[in-house]
Amino acid sequence: MPRVVAWSCVVLFFCAGGVAAADPVAATRGKAALEGTAFIRAFWPSFGYAEAWRAWGVSEKPAGYDAAFRERYGLHPAPYPNDGLPMGLRKADYLFTKGIGIDCMVCHGGSILGKSIVGLGNTSLDIHSLFEELYAASRTPTRVPFAFCQARGTSEAGAFSVYLLGFREPDLTLTHKFRDLGLKDDACEDVPAWWLLKKKKTMYYVGATDARSVRSMMQFMMHPLTTRGDFERAEPAFRDVLQYLLSMEPPKYPFPVDAKKATAGKVVFGEHCAKCHGTYGERWTYPNKIVPLAEIGTDPKRYENIGPAFGAAYAESWFAKEKAGGWFLPGQPLKLTAGYQAPPLDGVWATAPYFHNGSVPTLDGVLNSRARPKVFTRSFGTGADDYDRERVGWKVREVSPPPATMSDIDRRRVYDTTRPGRGNAGHTYGDDLAPDERAAVIEYLKTL
């Protein structure tokens, strides 16, 4: 297979050594901005939320509609004031009135053991159905232009940027001459936890973007009605949002931990895992290591799908011309990587499913490739009954590949690892561990 180069969206990171602590005052402002601001305009009129049920194939509006809406699309109650809307949806300007839009938490607001957590990836979300059915309920003649997700709980986040930047000039003014920057919609991206950012020098799965870039976080603002001036006005708020992200801490494992087994697991982890994933505790280390694709062996689609055409367009754009902070020099060559970044593992117990495409539902499967299910589904609930405390991750049920007659929304509930972008091979480093060693490592991971 020819080598496909992963391109960064900004320039190299020059700061050596440890990561600076977040500014607490700015972090407080950033939290308020993130939870209380509509940074983009609405996609749907207000009645779209109330009428969404008409696309569900039912004869009347379900009782307990708010909960039914959240379950339908994999959304969660907002742990902050949000006008009665689920986390990820927001009231925003729509033409000359108020409508319903989305914000960062539609993907970056998840739930574990029934508790909504800002910054935890939303691994229940069916964002394709959310857009498709709310457009239909809103009687809006808009078609979803590509697959927003192939499997529930994942998204085509990279494809959104590739598609939307195709409608922008380098200064982010809109153009009617669409440029195809290599749009592909089969990467099946799992959403990483925001609290991991504080340890990283580079971010995104290929590790090719500066972790302190503010503008790179603003790509989601490429709503068709967002002006260049809107980006400029929002940038100071996003500098505060970044500080909020850098202040986040992972949730603690809430169940009993076998301390003796965890201590033994720490030793095994140090021998077999720390060189890529770092060490933990007060004097933690993190190597920010990119593991070559040929070595890690995980699904290559995410690496391949963001290609040179998008990289070149991004390098010319407003997003890549960031100067504040002293880390950015216009014209600096784009950073290339050879594979995927091994992430920090803080709060890893809460971040199932695993791998960059969510193809492995438990830590037991991460450490034993023979234990990974081939085709599976799960409840997509996030309560205690949905969580597998023994294997650490989500309870799943193995099923047959979905038949051609299955509806699209039901098909997305089935994770078929034989499909493009959904492979669960690779990362076989735990296969040679003895069962008791593997169990000990999993016990230790609960403590991170």
What does this protein structure show overall?
With 448 residues, the chain is of the alpha+beta class. The protein has a domain at 259-288 and 344-445. 28% of the residues lie in helices and 11% in strands. The protein contains 15 helices and 16 strands. It has helices at residues 24-36, 47-51, 65-73, 105-108, 127-137, 157-165, 228-247, 259-272, 274-277, 293-296, 301-305, 308-316, 363-366, 408-411, 435-445; strands at residues 6-7, 44-45, 89-94, 97-102, 109-112, 115-118, 202-203, 209-210, 290-292, 336-337, 339-341, 375-377, 387-388, 393-394, 397-398, 414-416. It has a three-stranded antiparallel β-sheet with strand order 2-4-3. A three-stranded antiparallel β-sheet has the order 15-12-16, with no helix packed on it. A two-stranded antiparallel sheet has the order 1-10. Helix 1 (24-36) packs across helix 7 and helix 8 crosses helix 15 (435-445). The longest helix has 20 residues, at 228-247. It is globular and about 65 Å long. The model is unreliable at 1-18 and 325-329 (pLDDT under 50).
